Amino acid sequence: MKTALFLSLAVSAAFATEKPNVVILYADDLGYGDVSCYGAKTIATPNIDKLAAEGLRFTDGHSAAATCTPSRFAMLTGEYAFRQKGTGVLPGDAKMIIPPGRATLASVFKGAGYQTGVVGKWHLGLGNEGLDWNGEIKPGPQEIGFDHCFIMAATGDRVPCVYVKDHRIVGLDPADPIQVSYKQPFPGEPTGKGNPEQLKMHPSHGHDMALINGISRIGYMKGGKAALWKDEDMADTFTGQAVKFIEENKGGPFFLYFAGHDPHVPRVPHPRFVGKSGMGPRGDAILQFDDCVGTILAALDRLGLRENTLVVLSSDNGPVVDDGYQDEAVAKLGEHKPAGPLRGGKYSAFEGGTRVPFIVRWPGKVKPGVSAALVCQVDFPASFAALTGQPTPASAVDSQNVLPALLGEDASGRAELVEQGGPVSLRQGAWKFIPSAAGPAKSKNTNSETGNAPGPQLYDLSSDLGEKQNLAKTQADRAQSMAEALQKARFGAPK
Ligand code: NG6
Ligand code: CA
Description:
This protein is α/β, with parallel strands linked by helices. It is built from ten helices and 20 strands. α4 (105-111) packs parallel to α8 (380-387) and α5 packs parallel to α6 (280-302). The chain is globular, with a radius of gyration of 22 Å.
């Protein structure tokens, strides 16, 4: 009996060391050049810098797409979003696009005995067609492997402006039911277009519908007054929920996907950050995200979980300056380069679209340093399955096990990577191929370079990180073979 008890204790101790807690700290629209450890000079992000100094900082780490929904879809499912219809940027009343029961990053952890939680921005749809927001909001994260969730449905600039905890809107008064429509306004409800005098921040393009907390949004809503979020408190609310999840699951192992909202629009940071960056609300929102990171990491320290927790920090896509509100982001940018040395940003096929801050810290296991390995968030399901001794889900068709690269044991990572910007492009080592694509070279509203061009583009990132010198003509053979490889990766049998 005694021996059996001893053995089981020994086994569970060994178990625990192989199953660290995993925390993903995910920013929204944070660019490669937006943090000081990636070279930003006019803004300081001390908490992210400290994480990078204690961990491995990737210089070629990618989100799977250059916008939110497809990027998060790929990170959770391990399948590129371009393989599935309906995975573009979703309205706030979209039905859930990951089918219930599908294997995900969360279910991989759950299968390994983890407690799993998501806090923050969801943007993968909720419920079925015609969802009644006043009842059970289902399916949602809990139907695809998360034990706990505290989320917003879509984005800060999309209705409904409420939090959803597990299957319910938080703080909803049944006497004041909530209605949501992306088709028509509710008569009598204020809108940005009809009531501009009530706005504390004006749109620059779009965003002139439901007027909530002095900011007009995309989509219309009515009711649910007691449940409405206050943008200024959103980062603290999410961070508080993240810390609560960690405290409640400190016995571990746990997986936390913390999806912060900063610096996505509308940029309405808490007053304690206002004016602190000198770059207007966009810079202040970056400081706020850095502060969230600091608070969550401090909670791990306080609970003695630093050593046994693998932390990943990244962003869902590259940066954008004016994304629809008059928030001084362009006027106060100064010398700051949100994408650093990269060309393009959010919405773009250039590297700035998907190459993002990407840091892994696991004290004692991952040697601090810098890695140039090519890795992508679509690889998380396979890599974390490997970490926790699980099989890669069969449906995670694009997910490669890059765990050795994430742990700093392999300096190269992927041989090839598909990047989903506007045009879907291909990396092979340092080579980047963008197929010819119709459409504007620059988006009129955001001024971002899309990567669209009438002919193919080929860049050698080893000497031309900024993608300035198109070699498609002088290296026609390589361009041709990469065009074929891209076709195969997109439409052939995956892997
Ligand atoms: C665009 C919005 C932009 C942002 C983006 C999604 C307009 C004019 N622009 O359609 O403001 O919300 O969608 O961003 O509405 S993401 O990071 O969630 O992908
Ligand atoms: Ca985003």
